[in-house]
Amino acid sequence: MARILNRLEPYVALSPVLALLAIFLYLPLVFDVIYSVHDWSSLSPTWRYVGLGNFRLLWNDPIFWHGLRGNFLYAAVSLLCQVAGALVLAAILESGVVGRRLSGFFRVAFFIPSILPITVIGLLWQILYQPDGGLIDQVLQAVGLGGFAHAWLGEEATALPSIVAVSQWQWTGYLTVLFIVGIRAIPSEIYEAAAIDGAGALRSFWHVTVPGVQETTILMALITIFGAMKVFDIVWVMTAGGPNNASHVMGSYMYQLAFRDDRVGYAGAVAMAMFVLSAIAGGLQIWHARRSHS
Amino acid sequence: MNTRLRQAPRSRAAATLLLGVLALGTLYPLFWLFLNSFKLNDELFEQSWKFPEAWQWGNYPKAWQYGLGHFMANSVLVTTVSVVVIVLLSALAAYVLTTQRFRGRGVLHAVILGGLIVPPEVSLFPLFKIMKTLGVLDTYFAMILPDVAYGLPFTVLLLRAYMMVIPLEMAEAARIDGAGLLRCFWSVYLPLCRPALAAAALVQGMRVWNEFVFALTFVGRDALRPLTVGLTTFGDSLQTDWPVLLAGLVISTLPVLATFLAMQRQFMGGLTAGALK
Amino acid sequence: MALGYSQQTEEGICNVKRRQFAAGALALAGTALAGGARPGRAEEKVVLSFLHKWPEPDNVVFFNNAIEAYTKAHPNVTINAEAVADEPYKAKIRVVMASGDVPDIYFTWVGEFTRQFIRGGRVLDLSPYLAKPEWQGRFSQATLNAYRTDGKFYGIPLNLDAKFFMYNKTLFEKAGISAPPATWPQFEAVCDKLKAAKIQPISFGSQLAWATSHYVGDFNAKLVPIAVRESDYLLKTPADKLFTDPGYVQALEYYTSMLTKGWFNKTPNAFTHAVARAAFHAGRSSMLYDELVSFGRAAGTKLEKDGWDFFPMPAIPGGRGDQALLTGAPDGFVVSPKCKHPEVALDFLNFLTTRAQGAEYTRITKRTSAVIGAVTSANASPQVLRGIDVINAAKGMVIWLDTDMESRVGSAYLAGAQALMGGTETPAQVMAKVRAAALQAQKERS
Question: pLDDT of C193-213, one tens digit each?
């Protein structure tokens, strides 16, 4: 009897987490699947079964594909800045090249944007990005690069890249702190051994730090990719997908479909696409990590 | 740590300069926010980069008068409860996943991992129905329950990554001593993980504090609303007194900033040995 | 007009006290009547849910006062009000509706937004109630018509709104302009003079796309025959003719020309309407196309010192639409058919829109009450008073473009209007996309 109880223990211990996930994450997902094969608006009670019609529509929808491209851009830049960049930043801060106190200050400074509410960030950067009076263009003009000045959020070509840049500003310091935690876990003897072997700063970064934080890197990369796939709020507060749908990502397009265009079924299809694509990206990432690990 | 690498003065200067410029770029917008919360509406748009012509100290009491204190109390309540529940449940789950071998562990791990990719936006429709069925609409639970649920996947993974480096023997030794699963968790693992728990609490606290959509959708009574929703009563895109709004935003950010500054030393200090491995 | 307004002010000054007193007495009488008419109801407990989109502090004061006054006179009634700001309201109302929990009294935008609720059976036909004596003479017919569909009335208006060009008198004088333009050629001349005087003619911010809809909707009304436009907006035109009238492309051409001729500031897509308004209020441009409900925000700005006035969108000679229409709409409330006590809900709405409450509304919120006679020189600026005169004199109203048509067609229009400001698409290309969206919507509806 006691043994059976013992065996059940892990399940009992996990049950609150699983129950909460089941009710508040996975059950709504099941509803999304049902939505995605129907045509309905939240404002009227009529439902119409359309089978895979929404998915066919999605396949031929240029805004969706454009949005997907936006997600890929988001993921690529974020991996570069928030994972690779943050790792380098963390290594510099931890290398002792700047004093202890100063490095503590930088750490806090880089982290602070991540604690701000999204409304603050959206408002702030809308004004920073303004042509003429905005800070970005003023700085460009001051350093003689006035030719690069843009109406950043107002031009179709620059709107999404400008938003992506804000996300890097917001999150790079956050990941830097998490990487610092990882770097500190590397026994300092390994660094000392490398130094005795005559390894310079670059080599010891490459041969000691990078392998030493591999687990952290995998987790961070995974979170960054998932985040890039479902990104929504920063786009919505900055441009709401405009101008002319140019800065839509899948998340903002889904929101517009569900809460502006009253096509909840179609929005459900977009949600499905987001989920499946994230799952594939995550699966590939884990598979790749496992393979290179062994 | 200075012994690790001997740095030439020139590279030290270069690194300091680089980090300094980055820090300036990071902090300047916040300085701007602070500065502009003391301006008049016209000044904000017309002379966004200058110091205020006359410091409008009145913006702060004005912002506070909109009931910020009351909204803030709700935010503190919801955030505190959510964070405690998230961290406790996640730690327990992470502990079980790391130390116990049982059938279906891989699947359950994947189920938790999968929670990371569920986008909450379209789920608002079914979530509203679920809340209604549970009878928690218009209560604090309507915010706490989804806030907790959406925080669990990341926290479990974060804590699991940390617990992986705690030698398994510790758990086994404790169990041989006759301690049950829960007691071993409570008296052996939980204290060992304190720095990681602090990090997880901080990260989740930030997220819950800034949460908006759930609070907006599932709670209707002003008496229960948190700060994020309360701030929208300053007006929408059509009707707004921006500097007062900025003052409100500064006020609403201060508690998180203070908590972060107070806690970061503690958990950064505590995490020196064996963190996220 | 100017003469009429000064007379009105003088009369206003001597009549303020008397009017306020009269209003108060009226309110008292109203409450007494409403209370006295239903003596038997006192025991029955009635709870009404009430969802609207005005959480701003001044509005909260008005609604709280009104609810308190009403429930004091009717102790058996409890009103649970919930207010969510304009943007979030769009999400909130949808989630609430999807759950089937229709509030007893709620706000809807006029036009297609309300028509969706009508089709779904989620609003009560108020025609029989509005025929009763206590509602007579309260709203102008044009205001009521905004909530009319197929001959039935569905909504109780709260406020009135319309779009006007506000202009800076000092800057106009500086450019040598003596009178506001009434026709498009005059408007062109005004803008040319301003440009020659190195003054930015119009501030425009289209970063949030709804701001484009007011221009486009107005040009459509002036350039497309009224019957064609209404049938297109309702998707009732046969598929081969849907949104094919040449007036639509022409309307977008007029709109685009305002940018290419340098009347708008550069890159409107990079500014929100709030930023454009701030520039105008600070005297950096001479005109802004803004709403009547925003007139009050000029108080205390440089614009107020410079002096300002307004004029409606100039008529386009030869335009095939109607030149005497104004763009605008009332905001108001509808009642759920599931409401258990519709007569109480209507009684409350009746109380909310008495002349006394309407005056309170305008006094506290600075918005223009839809109730006839509620806006007076005692509670509103001369410009607002004249704005109301213009609305009342208008032949009819054109509802905001984005709430007047099926939302995906509206979305295509808004995105296209941004593309025109970015110079990335031509009017013909935009109309092709609008037509494609309309065809798809029409197909799905049938």
Answer: 999 999 999 999 999 888 999
Residue B147 lies in domain = 69-276
Q: Above pLDDT 90, what percent of chain C? A: 63
CB C270, CB A130: distance < 8 Å: yes
Let me know if residue B178 belongs to a domain. Answer: yes
> Does C281 sit within 8 Å of B42, measured CB to CB?
yes
Of B209-213, C202-206, C358-362, the least confident: B209-213
Do strands C156-159 and C308-311 pair parallel, antiparallel, or not at all (unpaired)? unpaired
Closest by Cβ to A242, choosing from C95, C408, C418: C418
CA distances, C6 to each of B87, C13, C381 (Å): 69, 11, 12
Amino acid making up residue C71: T
**Domain C163-327+399-445 coded CATH 3.40.630.30:** no
Q: B135 and B30, same structural domain?
A: no
Q: Which residues, at least 6 apart from B135, have a Cβ–Cβ distance to it below 8 Å?
A: none
Q: Is residue C133's pLDDT more than 50?
A: yes
Binding partners of B (≥3 Cβ pairs within 8 A): A, C
Task: For residue B6, tell me if it sits in a domain.
Answer: no
C-alpha C414/C-alpha C209 separation (Å) is 6
Whether domain C8-161+330-374 has CATH 3.40.190.10: the reply is: yes
| Residues B161/A215, Cβ–Cβ less than 8 Å | yes
Tell which of C101, C206, C207 to mutate to test the A interface (max A CBs under 10 Å).
C207
Decide if B235 and C302 are in contact by the 8 Å CB cutoff.
Answer: no
Q: What is the mean pLDDT of residues A151-169?
A: 94
Under CATH, which number does the domain A64-292 receive? 1.10.3720.10
Summarised one tens digit per residue, pLDDT across range B115-144 is: 888 888 778 888 988 998 999 988 999 999
List CB contacts (< 8 A) between B234 and chain C.
Answer: 56
Nearest by CB to residue C56, choosing from B44, B129, B239, is B239
What lies within 8 Å, CB to CB, of C67 at 6+ separation is C50, C79, C81
Q: How confident is the model at residue A9 (pLDDT cuts 50, 70, 90)?
A: confident
Shortest alpha-carbon distance between residue A132 and chain C (Å): 10
Mind listing the pLDDT tens digit for each residue in C153-169?
Answer: 999 999 999 999 999 99
Segments making up each domain of chain A, as ranges: 64-292
B48 & B175 share domain: no
For residue B199, give how far its alpha carbon lies from the nearest alpha carbon of chain A (Å): 9
Residue B8 maps to a domain: no
Mean pLDDT in residue range C338-366: 94
- Within-domain flag for B157: yes
**Can you spell out the DSSP letters for C367-394?**
--BSSTTT--TTTS-HHHHHHHHHHHHS
- Residue B235 has its nearest CB partner, among C85, C99, C278, at C85
ipTM of the complex: 0.85
A129 CB within 8 Å of a chain C CB: yes
Query: In this complex, which of A39, A126, A244 lies closest to C424 when CB atoms are compared?
Result: A244
B237–C92 CB contact, under 8 Å: no
Total H helices, total E strands in chain B: 14, 0
Instruction: Give the span between the Cα atoms of A136 and A142, in whole angstroms.
Output: 10
With an 8 Å Cβ cutoff, is C100 touching chain A? yes
